Amino acid sequence: MYTPKHTLFLACLLPVLLTKPASLSAQSNKPDAPTPRFAFAEPTVSPDGREIAFVSGGDIWTVPVTGGEARLLVAHSDNESRPLYSPNGTYLAFSSTRSGNGDIYLLTLETGELRRLTFDDGGETLTGWAPDSKMVYFQS
User: Fold this and answer.
1) Phi and psi for 128 in degrees, rounded to 5?
2) Complete DSSP assignment for 37-106
3) Residue 96 backbone zone (phi > 0: left; psi -120 to 50: alpha; other: beta)
4) What is the three-class DSSP state of 133?
5) What torsion do the CA atoms of 9, 48, 39, 100 make, to the nearest 10 degrees?
6) Residue 4: which H helix or E strand, with range?
7) Which of 33, 83, 86, 104 could serve as 91's disulfide partner, Cβ 3.0–4.6 Å?
């Protein structure tokens, strides 16, 4: 089982795993020009420990914890943030600005069905899940 300590470790490790180190130029022994780095943020580990969901470019991606190719999971012209797997691994909840100030959405991982959970004018921030995966917690 992953603990907050593991999540912090992964949050620090994810940028290292997904960025290419600078190499030395063969002629001058000086580092090559820095390679642009993409922003990887808000990683969360699936309940089975096999996958990491994270935000990059305002979209939600997943990658195996062992490394490998990232897969685009949720994309929209507005920004998605704070992905959190349900404890039973069936859903991924996240915040999105696609409806204005920010609402909570629920993605059914097996089918790809997307459902909006909140409908008010204020912005909501996803904070967690109930242990039985029947409720999400958020602040507004």
Assistant:
1) 170, -175
2) ----EEEEE-TTSSEEEEEETTEEEEEETT----EEEE--SS-EEEEEE-TTSSEEEEEESTTSS-EEEE
3) beta
4) coil
5) -120
6) helix 4-17
7) 86
**58: buried, middle or exposed (CB in 10 Å: 19+, 13-18, 0-12)?**
middle
Q: In angstroms, rounded to a whole number, what is the distance separating the alpha carbons of residues 37 and 49? A: 26
7-61 pLDDT, tens digit each: 444 444 444 444 433 333 345 455 565 554 567 899 999 999 999 999 998 999 9
- Find tokens 């990059």 and name the residue: 56
Q: Is the dihedral of CA 35, 36, 41, 46 positive or negative?
A: negative
